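Weekly puzzle thread! Below is a chain. First person to post its structure in token form gets bragging rights.
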Amino acid sequence: MGAVPGGGRFCDGCGAPIEALALVCSQCQRLVYSDRLKSIANEAASLYQAGNREGARRAWASALPLLPPNSSQADGIGRTIRQLDQEIAAGPAGSVRSQIGPPPQEPPSWAKRLGPLGPLVVLFLKFKWMLLFLATKGKFLLLALTNFKMIISMAAFIGLYWALFGWWFAVGFVGSIFIHEMGHYVTVRRYGFSAEGPVFLPGLGAYVRWHGINVDPVVRSRISLAGPLFGLFASLGAYAIYFATGERVWMAVGHVGAYINLFNLIPVAIFDGNSAMTPLSRQHRLAVLITSLAMLFITSEFMFLFIALGTGYRTFFSRDYPQKPSESTAYYYISLLVVLGLLSWYGVRSAVAIRGDLT
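Winning reply:
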């Protein structure tokens, strides 16, 4: 949060003016006091680790007035405060033990049966409060991985592709999709919205459910494009493993990952390209159209034809042009088109070369 002439304030995320007493930016929904909240989280964690539960509780309580009452962050801090209240009510002995270390205890029988994983599970259950702390620190991946629905759906997704194409491709492919969806998840949470972990639909794809009110089109476009951006990184990672190991399955994972993320940039219906196209002016959309046609000519990647058709429709027929176009979104969109197209093209070209060597 910064200051503007006349004593006003503006948002550090989008630069919009902040109304008096506001806790959330009305434009991008970013928390106004996010930096202060991070400082409080650090202070509370340090106090807890030092055995000062009362101090940690006071620190967490001081964060509540800086948050919207019904937000997920306020709910998480409320649960942390209730947990601390229980520990404080247990008496001072708990604080002393936290400073000198707990006495040796025999792990429960169920933990013994887990073998070397038993101590990790016991530690996880013993320090549940750490999850809430990590949430306030922005450890989005940890939050997503605690989603039971995500774990079950991911297992079903892996099972399907394992049966079709083998274990390593299934793991690599599902990992690529997971990284794509985490791009959406991380960006949604960065803008201060609530989101659920990715849910996989075997044979179809995956999605992240999130909630926002009056979301600025530029913010929505960045949330949409974050998926293909993270997917691009996943594809590069798969190609890097291929170069390091020579295992062709990773080249296949890299190619399929790039192809699917390119597919998601079609600017219609439920695809990521739909929201990404919204803040673009007519000139920006023409640039995307020209780029798509050029990439179709250069790479012979048929997916660019569908992107060009969708862009042409959004340019000449839908006429949903924004009042304030975003040039940076146009560059973002075009860059992803070019790089993902080249990665997909490289995978096809390499596969043809390998097939020629084998024959």
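Puzzle host: Confirmed. Bonus trivia for everyone else. Residues 33-111 form one domain.
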